[in-house]
Design a protein that fits this description.
The protein is an alpha+beta fold. The protein has two domains: 43 residues; 73 residues, mk0293 like domain (Ubiquitin-like (UB roll)). The chain has five helices and three strands. Strands 1-2-3 form a three-stranded antiparallel beta sheet. A hairpin with a 2-residue loop joins strand 1 and strand 2. The radius of gyration is 17 Å and the shape is elongated.
């Protein structure tokens, strides 16, 4: 019982700190560096709420990826799992490898209004 109460308190504190960090703009900095504040901290939402769907090619097959954007920059890439499994089945490659290749290809995208192209 005390473990559950301890988790609830920790989640509550984490959520409160996330509000403070968001106000300071540190959530975006953490996201761009791959640091996670946990699902309770940001309530499962992208800081500015921008998500785009794009398509990449892995082994000549299309894979849809979701791009999470913050201030016009890609901060996270998530390939669609069904597409990854389909390509894995077609090519005989491990799912993990296809997923990694799709995510890497998705990171090459930038938002159309990105003021600082790389």
């Amino acid at each position: 019982m005390t473990t559950q109460i301890g988790r609830l308190r920790a989640n509550h504190l984490l959520a409160r700190w996330a509000i403070v960090l968001a106000a300071l703009g540190l959530v975006a900095a953490c996201s761009s560096q791959g640091v996670s504040l946990g699902p309770d901290a940001v309530a499962g939402k992208v800081p500015d709420g921008s998500v785009e769907m794009r398509e990449v090619q892995v082994a000549g097959q299309p894979v849809h990826v979701k791009l999470a954007l913050h201030n016009g920059r890609v901060v996270n890439v998530q390939p669609e799992y069904e597409d990854v499994v389909r390509v894995s089945t077609l090519t005989g490659r491990p799912v993990k490898d296809v997923l990694a290749d799709a995510a890497a290809a998705g990171r090459l995208f930038r938002a159309d209004d990105d003021p600082d192209p790389e």
